[in-house]
Design goal:
The complex is a heterodimer.
Chain A: E1 13-14, H1 25-33, H2 35-40, E2 50-51, E3 57-58, E4 61-62, H3 66-72, H4 83-86, E5 90-97, H5 102-106, H6 119-131, E6 139-142, H7 146-156, E7 164-167, H8 173-178, H9 184-188, E8 190-195, H10 212-219, H11 221-229, H12 241-261, E9 266-270, H13 272-282, H14 287-291, E10 301-306, E11 309-314
Parallel strand pairs in A: 5-9, 6-8, 6-9, 7-8
Antiparallel strand pairs in A: 1-4, 2-3, 5-10, 10-11
Helix pairs in contact in A: 6-7, 10-11, 12-13
Chain B: H1 14-29, H2 42-63, E1 74-75, E2 106-113, H3 118-121, H4 135-147, E3 155-158, H5 162-172, E4 180-183, H6 189-194, H7 200-204, E5 206-211, H8 228-235, H9 237-245, H10 257-277, E6 282-286, H11 288-298, H12 303-307, E7 317-322, E8 325-330, E9 340-347, E10 353-360, E11 367-368
Parallel strand pairs in B: 2-6, 3-5, 3-6, 4-5
Antiparallel strand pairs in B: 1-9, 2-7, 7-8, 9-10, 10-11
Classes of the chains: A alpha/beta, B alpha/beta.
InterPro entries (chain A): His_Pase_superF_clade-1, His_PPase_superfam, PG/BPGM_mutase_AS, Phosphogly_mut1
Keywords (chain A): Glycolysis, Isomerase
EC number (chain A): 5.4.2.11
Amino acid sequence: MAATASIQPVGAIHLRDCGNDSGSLIGKFSSRCSLKGFAIDGRSFAKGICISRQGKLHVARGSICHALVMDHFSSTSDTTPDNNEKTLIESSLILIRHGESLWNEKNLFTGCVDVPLTKRGIEEAIEAGKRICNIPVDMIYTSTLIRAQMTAMLAMTQHRHKKVPIVTHNENEQAKTWSRIYSEETKKQSIPVIPAWQLNERMYGELQGLNKEETAERYGKELVYEWRRSYDIPPPNGESLEMCSQRAVAYFKEHIEPRLQSGKHVMVAAHGNSLRSIIMYLDKLTSQEVINVELSTGIPLLYIYKEGHFMKRGSPVGPTEAGVYAYTKV
Amino acid sequence: MLSLSLFTRIEIDIMAAAAFHQAVATVQSSQLLINSGRRNEFGNVSMSLIPKGFKVNSQLSRSGSYGSGKRNFGVIQASASQTSVVDPVSTPLNNSTSEAKKKSNEAALILVRHGESLWNEKNLFTGCVDVPLTKKGVEEAIEAGKRISNIPVDMIYTSALIRAQMTAMLAMTQHRRRKVPIIMHNESEQARAWSQIFSEDTMKQSIPVITAWQLNERMYGELQGLNKQETADRYGKEQVHVWRRSFDIPPPNGESLEMCAERAVAYFKDHIEPQLQSGKNVMIAAHGNSLRSIIMYLDKLTSQEVISLELSTGIPMLYIFKEGKFMRRGSPAGPTEAGVYAYTRVISSSGHYHLLQLSHSLNGPLQVLK
């Protein structure tokens, strides 16, 4: 149980039961660190997760200078795990719901209208970034709406990692060619950002642009309530939550989950309904339960993906909060 | 020196002009009749209706109730403090100064070059690689926004790259006007349909944001992603210098400045100039090379001159478009700067126009300088 840390922390690292037997590492921890508790305990990130160079997950408890943790999070994508560790490929999944938009402020139904962030929404994005500044990110998925894209880009300005998010363009041949990078070195230092309409907010049909007053007048209060709060009743020419879930979860399973499976750390910056749809899948919620899921704006939600399972890890706390733990591979 | 009383007739009227267009837009938008299944969605409409529609506007203005043909046009060279007389935001539409409505063929054009990107910081050739802003670039955008917070904006054009789009959106968070920028989507039928707005009031309160690849940075071909060292190693210093500083020699599989200018200026003439002609105030958020290409056209520069043109990042550049001509008005100063100017046109008793330069120190009265 030697603590052969490859970095020199300022604080003391107290390692508990960090066996070298990688196969049972997590098992050992579960008794001390209540790892099982993590799965159901949606509380803070205080028990932090560190993803090591080989993508291996190690959970230890210790206080460590925040600044030094990032040194450990160098690129995990260009090293292949050895055979012993393959079964332990674990990756982090960060979900961020964008903050206040200009129509939130005006109390208008937004849906898929492409409305940008307010000053407050910008601050929320930056705050979110501070909270995840030490969690590795290899790929970013966003919706095609600017408020989610800006949230991702603003959050990443706070990231300790030196990799650069690059928005990918595939809308046509020219866009693809024109955005090509010609240096291998630079590519390795890039975090692809993939915009996908399937991660857009639920399309609100003929309610888009209306305020609650107008809408109640036009359609009647009860009907509006039904559209907003039911699972499967869409507003006129819009999507129900069910329809939104369908395309969001399908996209997640087809495009995002394979990345996690291969050990990539992924951040998804999107919207209230597209994210709760994904959470419904991750947490295996019923349609009754998902209606009540409220994802806070600008507060990132962390999941750990391992062997096909998603373990909710709650919201990472910011670095300025006392009692923050960091974990490191030893 | 003229006394203050003379200036009671001065209408610094950019906002009134904008309000005018807003009012006329009411006429237009009531015809839009957004219904599900019909093609007149906002997205569609704003692309095709605006050029036509706003030309109609200008005709309406001549025959309409908007004044006797007198025009007062004010340009805010810089926004003064909140106590400034020059506060068009508060000019109400139904003000008794209806004679002060701007004639429809004058419009403001703001050019903003985005600030520092993550590859600027790393000294890599960026071109059309879609690299976002650094913290500093974010701050530059916000600062730019403060400088133009009082200049009306009816439409925004950006490139297809996030650093320009973010610059525009960040800048507009500082804008005094309550209108909301809305990005138009036309990449597919679904994108168009899904982004429809169903309230006319809301549409009137919107500033369409149009993204165009033609406003992208010059495409740097095989240099994209390389740093200066790598590039010099790979191709030789002299060759690299030629690519970077010539007008018409492109890097391998890239664009020359000439090629960039071709598509940027063509886009400007086809899409943006008609908006200005109809009196729309336009902001363009783009890149060093696409903007200097446009400036080459606006200022009628030679290829020699444009090569040495450097547009500061994050410092907006203002032009006034009038009767087919572009008049450069420099950079609006920040609101905290002392001795800011405002320019205004005054109608003298004989009906002649005079362009006066006013100085408004933060606490003193308006004084005419010339």
